Structure formats: structure tokens, C-alpha cells
């Protein structure tokens, strides 16, 4: 009978249990993950089950690392996620959070687009560190992603997006995440995608300022290729700033929408 042990095909006898495999292959493993879930009691294995054996505190070699990074995934997700190419327009509060969430799920390839550098006021909500101040956001984020998941292929473009370059820059990606700060730039990106490259899906966000209710942030499907996240009301303005919690909620709405589209779940 075939199972996948740390994502590699492995033959076992009918009736073999998870703990029996552990005792044969890695007796000191103290984390046993079966089909994305940590088990505490022994269970019989079935054809095509995915079993991951982990020893707490042990740093795996690179050949094994990727399998352990995806151990908690729902079975069947990684194969599709690994093939996806996602473009992120803007690497501020939204884009930096989206990029990290997609890296953590093992996205195959990212295109990161931003013209700006990291500055101190970014650190209240954006996923950078003091050491990144003064660096291009694209370069800083590429460095962070490598520290999280070195198996993600990251392309970067240090450029200001406008109607003259959007089509060319994003021509190869599957899905575009709109994560720009400027309302005019947001509208330009979305309108350009919808009008000039309608085969692409765009996941945008608007209305996420302040510390208003979590539950007013929602994902709406506007068209088959256009999703919009936010409350649609609370834009950043004088007296109503942008802070990590609510921005993070919206960003992860965007990231999860991307994942759902990859998995052919097109409803919100």
C-alpha cells in the first residue's frame, strides 16, 4: 500500500499504523501529522495518506524542509499552490502581509512590485524590521520571504505602476493583488486589469482604517474576475489612521481569497 511519508512515496503493508511507521523510520519523532492534523493516538493508515514525522527542535536539511513546511496543509492543496504565480501591487500594510501569508502556504512564485523604501512609520503595520529602513520594500520583502520559505520563487520590480506599464508587468501572473495606498492608483490598477487584461483575476481592498469592528471587513465578489475586501467606508484620513490589526484582517482576507481561487473555490 502506498502512502506519502514526509511527501515521499512509501510502501507499507495493509493495516500498518502511523505509530508503527514512526517506530521504524524515526523513533524519536514527537510530532506526528496525519493528513494535516497532529495525532496523539495511533491510527491505521490508508492508501495515499500523508504522514509527516517531526522531532521538536531539530533543524531539517533542505531536502526535507519543504515537506515539513507543508505538513499542516489540507491534503491536495500544495500541488495547486506550488504551480501558482501571484502578483502583488504594493508592499505596504496590505501587500507585505499578503506576501508573507502566501509564502507561508508555499506559493510557487510571487511578483512583488513597489517603488518605495521602508521608513519608520511603516513599522506600525507593515511586515518589516528596523534593519530594513532605507531598503527598497521589494528587496526587504524578498529577504523576509527567504527566511520564511526559501522554496518560493520571488521576482521583484522597483517601479511606480501606472496605466502605461500595468499590462506588461503583470502579463504572466495568474492573480493580481491590489495593495496600493493611493486611491487614484488603486482605481487605475483595477480599471486597467478589468479593461485590458480581463483574463486576470484582481483581488483589491478598500476601507480598512482605524479600529472599527472586525466584522465589518468582508470579501465581496464584484465580477467573475474582481473581488473587493474591506468595509467600503473607513478610508485613512486625518484623525483615522492605519494600524496593524485591521489592516492585517483585510490583508488575510485577500490572501485567503487568492488561495480559494487557486483551489477553484470562486464564491466568497
TrEMBL record:
<dbReference type="InterPro" id="IPR032726">
    <property type="entry name" value="ThiS-like_dom"/>
</dbReference>
<protein>
    <submittedName>
        <fullName>Sulfur carrier protein ThiS adenylyltransferase</fullName>
    </submittedName>
</protein>
<dbReference type="Pfam" id="PF14453">
    <property type="entry name" value="ThiS-like"/>
</dbReference>
<dbReference type="GO" id="GO:0061503">
    <property type="term" value="F:tRNA threonylcarbamoyladenosine dehydratase"/>
</dbReference>
<feature type="domain" description="THIF-type NAD/FAD binding fold">
    <location>
        <begin position="77"/>
        <end position="265"/>
    </location>
</feature>
<dbReference type="InterPro" id="IPR012729">
    <property type="entry name" value="ThiF_fam2"/>
</dbReference>
<dbReference type="InterPro" id="IPR000594">
    <property type="entry name" value="ThiF_NAD_FAD-bd"/>
</dbReference>
<feature type="domain" description="ThiS-like ubiquitin">
    <location>
        <begin position="1"/>
        <end position="57"/>
    </location>
</feature>
<dbReference type="GO" id="GO:0061504">
    <property type="term" value="P:cyclic threonylcarbamoyladenosine biosynthetic process"/>
</dbReference>
<dbReference type="InterPro" id="IPR045886">
    <property type="entry name" value="ThiF/MoeB/HesA"/>
</dbReference>
<dbReference type="GO" id="GO:0016779">
    <property type="term" value="F:nucleotidyltransferase activity"/>
</dbReference>
<dbReference type="InterPro" id="IPR035985">
    <property type="entry name" value="Ubiquitin-activating_enz"/>
</dbReference>
<dbReference type="GO" id="GO:0008641">
    <property type="term" value="F:ubiquitin-like modifier activating enzyme activity"/>
</dbReference>
<keyword id="KW-0808">Transferase</keyword>
<keyword id="KW-0548">Nucleotidyltransferase</keyword>
<dbReference type="Pfam" id="PF00899">
    <property type="entry name" value="ThiF"/>
</dbReference>
Amino acid at each position: 500500500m502506498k502512502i506519502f511519508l514526509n511527501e515521499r512515496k512509501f510502501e507499507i503493508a495493509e493495516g500498518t499504523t502511523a505509530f508503527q511507521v514512526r517506530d521504524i523510520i524515526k523513533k524519536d519523532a514527537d510530532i506526528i501529522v496525519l493528513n494535516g492534523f497532529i495525532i496523539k493516538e495511533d491510527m491505521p493508515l490508508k492508501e495515499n495518506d500523508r504522514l509527516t514525522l517531526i522531532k521538536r527542535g531539530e533543524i531539517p536539511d533542505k531536502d526535507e524542509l519543504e515537506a515539513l513546511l507543508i505538513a499542516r496543509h489540507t491534503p491536495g492543496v500544495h500541488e495547486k499552490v506550488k504551480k501558482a504565480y501571484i502578483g502583488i501591487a504594493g508592499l505596504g500594510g496590505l501587500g507585505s502581509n499578503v506576501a508573507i501569508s502566501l509564502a507561508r502556504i508555499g506559493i510557487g512564485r510571487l511578483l512583488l512590485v513597489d517603488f518605495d523604501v521602508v521608513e519608520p512609520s511603516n513599522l506600525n503595520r507593515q511586515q518589516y524590521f528596523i534593519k530594513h529602513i532605507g531598503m527598497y520594500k521589494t528587496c526587504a520583502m524578498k529577504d523576509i520571504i527567504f527566511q520564511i520559505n526559501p522554496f518560493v520563487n520571488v521576482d521583484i520590480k522597483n517601479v511606480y505602476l501606472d496605466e502605461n506599464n500595468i499590462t506588461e508587468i503583470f502579463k504572466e501572473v495568474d492573480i493580481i493583488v491590489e495593495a496600493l495606498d493611493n486611491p487614484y492608483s488603486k482605481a487605475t490598477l483595477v480599471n486597467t486589469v478589468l479593461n485590458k487584461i480581463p483574463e486576470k483575476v484582481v483581488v483589491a481592498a478598500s476601507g480598512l482604517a482605524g479600529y472599527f469592528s472586525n466584522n465589518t471587513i468582508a470579501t465581496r465578489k464584484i465580477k467573475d474576475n474582481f473581488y473587493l475586501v474591506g468595509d467600503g467606508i473607513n478610508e485613512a484620513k486625518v484623525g483615522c489612521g492605519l494600524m496593524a490589526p485591521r489592516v492585517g484582517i483585510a490583508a488575510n482576507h485577500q490572501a485567503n481569497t487568492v488561495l480559494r481561487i487557486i483551489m477553484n473555490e470562486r464564491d466568497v
